[in-house]
Structures are given as structure tokens and as C-alpha cells.
Amino acid sequence: METSSYSAQQRRAINLVWTASGDYQFEPQFLALKPNGEPDFYMNCIIGLVHKWFGDEMPARLFSAWVGDARQSVFDELTWLALENAAYEKELPVRPVLAELRRGHAEEFFASEYQLSRQEWMEKNQLVYAIQSARWKTVLGQRPPVLTPWEKGLSEALACPGIMSGEEVAAAIRAAFQKYLRFDGTAHAKTPLTLHFGERWAPLLTKLFTTEMVRTDDLAIGRSVAVGENGMVRASNALRSHLRSNERETEDRDYVERCFGRSLYAPKELALMEQRDCTGNHLGCHLWFTRGEPSPDKPELWVKLVRAEGGYSASARAMLGERSFEAERTQAKEDGMTDERCAKLAVGGAVIGALGSLLEYRPSWGMLTGVRPSKVATEMLLGGMSKTRVKKMLTSRYMAFPKKAALATEVALNEQKIIGSPAPQDCSVYISIPFCPTRCAYCSFVSYTSQRLLSLIPEYVERLCCDIRAVTGAAKRLGLRVKTVYVGGGTPSILTPEQIGTLLSAVAENIDIGSLEELTFEAGRPDTITPEKLNVAAACGVTRISVNPQSLCPEVLSGVGRSHTVEDFLRAYSDARASGIPCVNTDLIAGLPGDTFTRFSATMDGILALRPENITVHTFCVKKAADLRQTSGIYSIRGGDVGKCVDYSQIKAQQAGYSPYYMYRQKNTVGNFENVGFALDGTEGRYNIYMMEEVHTILAVGAGAVTKLVRLHPADGSRPVIRRLFNPKYPFEYLRENKCAELCRGIEDFFIEYPF
To answer: CA 697, 700, 705, 708: dihedral to nearest 10 degrees?
Structure first.
């Protein structure tokens, strides 16, 4: 059987499937791979057992029923939960070792949570995760998470027992989907995400940035060699049709494109059409729809890296048709510089030089691609470099534009004024309120808007107060000193005045409010802010509050799902001023769909006229878990007018007496720009600096909150140590599981391991 089109890890997965089934002659329809590409031992065994007990026809009919549906990945994952239980119970009497393998898989499922970033965690499908958690908690003999009656019913319906035949399992799955997910067995096509790149960017990015793979959990069960919606890989077609290697396939597509033009459909759409139409004698064939107009040659990039005397030398050549540009970069290995960094600087400089000439465009941040570009400037400043020298190094070594180098340097200097020499005992407390009245279309944060979940707020506040008491008690026993407190969300101002008073009173009872540098209450949504709530916050010691318009253009607000008006914001801002809270922050977003430079500049001017102490200007980010990701995906990587908006905000803010005091960047930000916080002198949001620069511990309470333990100066003089502790993600889980004692033990164990 031809398997050359598979990687070594995929071939390992195929062998696991074959071994479990006892049949080496069939062609596996699915493969189970972890995010790192390694095969998942248990789930590949289950795939083999599904073939052994149910054959191939039944699963093939099931999975083909919803190809193209917007919820395809959800149906896939839930179906495998049903098949897993049925196959497991059928095989267990014959193969008792399955029980231990199943427990190991369950343990690995939960262990993977602690390796995820906050962004990755937020991007998980909530329904799938909840039902998977219930399954694997039960396998481990632990109390399952609290499910809603609807989720519980779906979970029970998918627990197909081993006594069922294959057709009975399929019928049960279809019935569950019809009853709980309103799926009638007919695929409902989704509107594809369209990314439009203009001019010369299109051919380059088509080659360099292929279809994005999305995993709903730590295990991906494959669907098609051409990546499907959920990044899964179906193996049968590849094996049956003896597909060539990916490299050869890419060459063929490039040739067709040059001769006949680019495809009118995105790769995902083509993959779905091929799965539907390329069957029988046409199995393994590919489709290509064009206007019949030849495309220019796709760009090619060649890079050569060699070790040079005292460092590395790289050369790059970028070609498009008859146009060709070359660039070289030699990087000396300086004191304290690793070989890896030295090589990256050499390659990065050569690539940017060649591609920049070819495309007549260079990224404003050069080679600085990380979340915290100011950290590079900070390292240089702490190393004794002058401000002028730092800016020069950022432009010459990292190829950042002078204005970005100046911004990073200024932010680093202002941060150092605040941070100074951090004491190892310093810490901050974050309190999570993961509830919102409605969900903004651009938001990907963990927040809950349904009335069913909002009804949990009274119990949630009560639990928060208990956890504040417990966590701050652990901090006192360890000798930690709380410097700032941040109440964030979500929308904390969704709480009633009484609930706000209860929560902040718990803070005051367990933390010396008078010694705090800052107590922030992120009100956020103007439509939730009332004078009563603000007065309670002020009376309880709040020193900084956020009132966030995002835009002062009614059309923009309506387009992104903000359920407040400009007048609502102006009223809320006036009420915040009247409350006496000394520091008011306002958040703006540059590049929102429907916004223009004229509209944004008017918004910026309007905010500056109000004279808040803090102004935070974000750049619109196309986030995976946001509704806008599905409904409005047209943007340009160049950013269009967004660059002008970002520049305008920074120039006008500094002209008005505001200084940039913290900054960070995100993936998928329009134009690859940055988010910057500005402050009048002496009003900087200190929590933002401490959190972003990771200079001291953040103790976090509430659903979805992540405690970040930091030890900057270990006794052995090694690099800083950072450890994260995760609270249960969902309010139901948070209330039911009550893991605060476990959190406190984790905090205490860390500082016992790394004492002051």
C-alpha cells in the first residue's frame, strides 16, 4: 500500500490503527494526531476498533452528512465521543488493558490545559470542551463538571453503550444532533471567511500563509489530506488514490495557476467540493476554477545561512517572474548573544531586505515579532545603553522603523520609572468577572451573556469573596505584599451596586487598601454604568476606572455589536468624573470594520477634549473566537488607513501631554500594529505594567483567571521562573469544583520551592 504521501508520524498513527483493528489490509478513514503532530495512542486504537466492530461504511455516512456545515468540527468531535464509548465497551472484555489506556488518555486531556496560553484556552469550543470534560472526569472517577440540563442531556445521549450495533450507534448520534443541536441530517453550507490581499501581496501570501489549522482540543482526529474546517485529516482518500507528496502537489497547483489563473475559491472551499464530488473513478482528483487568465509566476524565496567568522552570514533571493532581488546580512555574535539569536538576526535581515525590495513594502516593526517589543529595549537600557543608542540598535539590528524604535524606547523608559527595582515579595491581585450584557462582535474573551448564566452572578460573587479571603491569606503567610488590585472581565459593572459593594468590601477586609498603589475597576461598557455603581466603587477605595467607548462613531458602534450610543458614553464618563474616582481610562480601537481615518481621528480628538487620565489605543485584531472572524474577514495586511490612525493617535496624544507607558502586540492584528496605553504624568496604570512585563506575581481569582507566579531572582542566579495556575474556565465549573484550596497550595508550593 502506498503511504509515501504521509509523514513519519502519520505512518505511525496508521500502524496503531491497523494493530488495534487486527486488519492490515484496509485503508484507515481517520487518524488521531496531537497538536505537536505525534499520534495519540489511545484514540488511534479506538479508530481501529471502530473499523473492527462497525466497519467503514457507517462512519463514512455519518461524517459525510455534515461536511460543509458551519458546525462541522463540533459534530466531528462529538461523534468521536459517541464512537469511543461504544467501541471501548465492545472491546474491553477482550482487551482489559484498554481501561488503563483510557485513564491515561483522560489524564493527558486535563494535563494539556496547563500548557495552553490564555488565548488558546479561550479559543476552545465551549460545548465540546464541556462534554469532553464530563466524559474524562467520569473515566478518572472524579466528580464531573456541572453541566446545564441541555448539555447533560446531549452528553448522556452520546454515551452509546457497547451493546448497540453500528446502525443503532449511528441512529443514536443522528437523533442526539437533531434533538439537541437542531441538525436534520442535511449539511448547511457556511459563508467562508474571505481574506483579501491587494496588489503583489496576494501571490506571496497565498504561498507563505496556507490554510489555517484549528484544533478544538488537544487531539485532532483527521479529516482529509486537504485540511478541513477543523484542521482534521481524512486518510482513506490519500491511501486509496495513492496521492503524491505535498511538495509535488504544490508544484502542480503552481503550474496550473500560472497557465490558467488563480482559483476563484478559497482552499477550504475547494477541499469541501473535492470531498463531495471527487468520488468513484475521480477519487484523488483536484478541482480548480478560474477565469482562464494566466497568472504571473508566484514569488520564490531562497535563503542561505552559513557560519561566518565571529557570527553568521545569510543571503536571500526573492523572485517574481523576471524580477529578482537579493540581500545579504552578516551578524556578529556579540557578548551574551546565543547562536540561535545571531542566526535569526542574520536570516531575518536578509529576508526583509529581499522581500521588501520585491514587494515594495517593509513591516514597520522589522524583525520584532513578539508580544512585548519594549522588552528588547528594556534589556538594552538595563545593559547600560543610552536612549539614543537603543533607538539606533532597534533600527539597525532589528530593522524597525525609526518611529517604532522611538516608541519602544520611550515605553521602556517610562516602565522602568514605575518598576524601578522590583521586590520579590511584591504581587498584584486580579479578580475576574466573566459576564457581559451582550457580546461584542470583535471580542474573544471568556465572557457569558445568557440569562441562564447571568443568574449565577449572586452565587459567583459570594464565591469570589471566599476565594479573595483564601488567596490573600496565603499571600500573607508567604510574606507577599499586594501592590495593585484589578477587577476585570467581562464587564464588572454588570454587577448591581450591592454586589459591587460586597465584592470591594471583601477586598478591603483582606487587603490594606491604604497601601495599594492602585485599585482598578474595569467598568467598560457605558450601558452598564450608573451613578450608584460609581459612587459605591469610589466609597470602597477604587482609584482607577475604565469607561470604554471604542469609537465615537454611531455607525461603527452598531457594526461591531456595541449596544450603547455615543450619548451613553458621554453620560457614563460625566458620572465617573462626578464620582470623584481620580483616574479615568478610555479604550479606543483603530481599524474597526466600517471605521475610516476621518471617523477615527474625530474619535481621538473627542476623547482628548474630555481629558481622561489614561487613553488606551488598541489596533483591531481578527481573533479566532470572535464573531467578526466568521462574518467580516476582509482586511489588508498593510492595514490601509489603520496605520494612519495609529500614527495619528500617538502624535496627538503626545502633543496633548500624554506619554506612552505600556505596549503589547497580538497575532492577527490588522497591519501588524501595536496596542499602546497613554497616561498623563503620574497616572499610569501600574497593574498593566506589572502584568505585561512579568516583573511580579499576579494572584488571580474567578472563572477563567490565570495566576502567574514569578520569581525574578532565584537563589541559584538562573533565569526568571514563571509558573501558571489555571482556575476552572466556566462559571458552572468554578462554582461546583471549588479549587481555591488547590490554588493556594500551588502558590505556597511555588514560593517554598523558590523562596525570597
So the answer is: 10
Instruction: Give me the count of residues in the chain.
Output: 756
For 167, how many CA atoms within 13 A lie in the half-sphere containing its CB? 0
Residue type, 115: Q
Q: Identify the bridge partners of residue 619 per DSSP, sorted by sequence position.
A: 590
- The closest alpha carbon to 415, from 371, 386, 375, belongs to 375
Q: Where do you find CATH 3.20.20 in the chain?
A: 422-753
Cβ-count burial 418-455 (b if 16+ within 10 Å, e if not)? bbeebebbbbbbbbbbbbbeebbbbbbbbbbeeeebee
Peptide bond into 490 cis (omega under 30): yes
Q: Which CATH class is domain 422-753?
A: alpha beta
List, for residues 454-508, the tens digit of each pLDDT value: 788 999 999 999 999 999 999 999 999 999 999 998 899 999 999 999 999 999 9
CA pair distance 613, 423, nearest whole angstrom: 27
Please give the Cα distance from 674 to 440 (Å, whole number): 21
pLDDT tens, residue by residue, 337-368: 899 989 999 999 999 999 989 888 888 999 98
Q: Is the pTM of this model over 0.85?
A: no
pLDDT value at 235 more than 80: no
Distance CA 58, CA 168 (A): 10
Distance CA 74, CA 127 (A): 8
CA distances from 537 to 109, 344, 469, 584 (A): 41, 49, 19, 13
* DSSP track, 689-752: HHHHHT-SEEEEESTT-EEEEEESS-TT--S-EEEEEEPPSSHHHHHHH--HHHHHHHHHHHHH
Quote the crossing angle between the two packed helices 57-64 and 72-91, to the nearest 10°.
160
Of 50-54, 251-255, 418-422, the poorest mean pLDDT is in 251-255
Please give the torsion angle defined by the CA atoms of residues 741, 742, 743 and 745, in that order, rounded to the nearest 10 degrees. 90
| DSSP letter string, 411-471 | HHHHHHHHHSS--TTEEEEEEEE-B-SS--TT--S--B-SHHHHTTHHHHHHHHHHHHHHH
Contact (Cβ atoms closer than 8 angstroms) between residue 348 and residue 385: no
Q: Which residues contact 364 (CB under 8 A, 6 or more apart)?
A: 400, 401, 403, 404, 643, 672, 673
Give the burial class of 520: count Cβ atoms within 10 A of its Cβ; 0-12 exposed, 13-18 middle, 19 or more buried: buried
- Three-state helix/strand/coil letters over 639-673: CCCHHHHHHHHHHHHHHCCCEEEEEECCCCEHHHC
Instruction: Give residues with Cβ within 8 angstroms of 99, minimum separation 6.
Output: 92
Task: State how far the Cα of 388 lies from the Cα of 724, in Å rounded to an integer.
Answer: 37
Q: Give φ, ψ of 437 to 5 degrees.
A: -65, -40
Nearest to 539, CA basis, from 515, 521, 517 = 521
Q: How far apart are CA 698 and CA 709, in angstroms?
A: 6
